[in-house]
Amino acid sequence: MRFCDDCNISYDTPLKHCLFCGGELSVHEPDHVTYKFTPFQKRGSWVFFYRLFLFLNLLSAGIALYVDFTSGSRLSWSLVVAISNLYAVVLCTILYVPTVWTSKVTKGMVVSIMAMLFIGLAIRDHQWALDFVFPLGVMANILLLSVLLLANRSRWFDHAVSLFGICLFGLIPGILNLIGVIGTHWPSMTCFVYAIATLMGMVVFSTKESREEIKRRLHF
User: Among 159, 153, 109, which Cα is nearest to 135's?
Assistant: First the structure.
């Protein structure tokens, strides 16, 4: 076990220098041998309510689509109901699966943006979601993950992976603007530039040790 006295961070890796301050890591030998085991977690009674929630949402979406379809007109209000039910199911699944909470926030943000876009398409008025909700939501997520990456150094890899993914997602509004899909240009172009600047900052300000750690984690 290696330890950085300046940053007060422990490293269970063969690194010799700290990823943040660049200082030399000291070796701390434990007094006794410890074994790392994944704690066993029993499924609680809430698993039943989770499955019941999924069933009721899928049933609600199916009934709404059936009633709207049998009314003789083309699908309209039922699409909004079905999208909302599907959004609730996906969001609940994201919260149910045990992952890092920053990953849950990123996935939840992406799913929320996509739900707004689909609702806009369903009501045949998607420009507000495409012009404002999409780019502004992505920029808010990039800002949140950037702050967490600088503040919480102990989970920097998890934050960096989520930040890299949302930055790639943030390039889409700029691409849509270039092909003429966007009506209001400044939110999408601001998101595009912000995403590129964040990606460049992650590359320029990364240390050699951090790049080696990423290669080790991703098995490059």
Answer: 109
